[in-house]
Amino acid sequence: MHRDEAATRLEQDHRDVAQALARLLDFAKAGDEELVREEWDAVEARILAHMDAEEMYLLPGFERDQPADAAAIRKAHDAIRRVLGESGVAVDLHLLRAENIADLCRRLVEHIDAERSSLYPWARAKGDSDSLRLLLRQLHPAARPRDRTASTLYALLQACRDGERGYRAAASDVPDGGYQLMFAHYANERAAFAARLDDALRALGAIPVREGSALGALHRGWLDTKATVTGGDPKVVLGECLRGEDAALKAYRVALRAGLPPSVREVVQEQYEGVKKAHAEVAALAGK
C-alpha cells in the first residue's frame, strides 16, 4: 500500500510544482515583484523538500538495483539545486526573468520524465515499505483541492466584506464630497467582489459566511474613533483605509499562490487588479 501511495504522492508533487512554476511565470511576466518573491519562496522550498525526501528514502535502495539511473538522478538534483541557488539570488536582486523560470521548468520536466520511467516504477515494485511510510509522513499530504479552494475563497470573501464596511464607514466620516464619492465607489466595488466570490463558493457546494473578520471589525471601530477625534480629517481616514488595503493586497497575493482552478483564479486575478488600483489611489492621496 505504501509503495503505490508514495509514488502517487511524489507524482502529485511534480504536478503541484509545475502549477506553481506556471504561476511564477505569470507573475514574472506581469512584473509583480511581491508575488514573484512570495511564490518563489514557496516553490523553492517545495522542490528542495521533494528532492530531499527522494534522496533520503528512495535513492539508497534504488542505487543497489539500478546504480547508473540513481547516479543520473543525483546529478540532476545537483543541477537543479544550482539553478535554484542562482535564481534565488536573482529574486533577491529583482533580476529574475521569465526566461530563467522557463529554463528551470525545462530542467524539471526532463527530470520528471526520467523519474517516471525509472525511479517510480521501481518504488511501486520494490520500494521498502518502512522507508516509503516515512517518506509519506515527511511529505504531509495536503487537503483536497476543493477544500483548499473553498478556504481560500472564504478568506477573500471576508476581506472584501471588511473592505466594503470600512469604506462605507470612511464615506460617512469625511465631510468632503469628493472623498465620499471615492469611498462609496470602492465600497460598492468590494460588495460586487464579495458577490462573485459568494457565487464561486456556492458552485463548490460551500455556504458563504455572512460577516467580515474580527480583525476587520476592530479596524472599522478604530477608524470611527479616529474620525470622531479628528473631525473626519481626510488624511487620517485615508491612512486607516490604506491599512485595510495593505491587508486586502496580502490576502489576494496569498490566494493567487494557492493553486486555484483556472476559472476561479481568473476571477481572483481580476479582483486583485482592482484592489491594486484602489491601494495605489489611496496611498497617493494619503501621501504614502
Summarize the structure.
This protein has 288 residues and is mainly α. The protein is built from 12 helices and no strands.
Model description:
This protein has 288 residues and is mainly α. The chain has helices at 2-30, 33-57, 59-65, 67-92, 98-117, 119-126, 129-139, 145-173, 177-203, 214-230, 234-256, 262-286. The longest helix has 29 residues, at 2-30.
Strand content: under 5%
- Average of pLDDT: 83
Helical content stands at over 70%
Q: How many E-type strands?
A: 0
Computed CA radius of gyration, to the nearest angstrom: 24 Å
Q: DSSP helix count?
A: 12
Please give the alpha-carbon distance between the first and last residues.
57 Å
Class from helix and strand fractions = mainly alpha
The helix-strand sequence is HHHHHHHHHHHH
Major sheet: none
Envelope shape: elongated
| Sequence stretches where pLDDT stays below 50 over 5 or more residues | 212-222
Q: What keywords describe this structure?
A:
mainly alpha; 288 residues; elongated; 12 helices
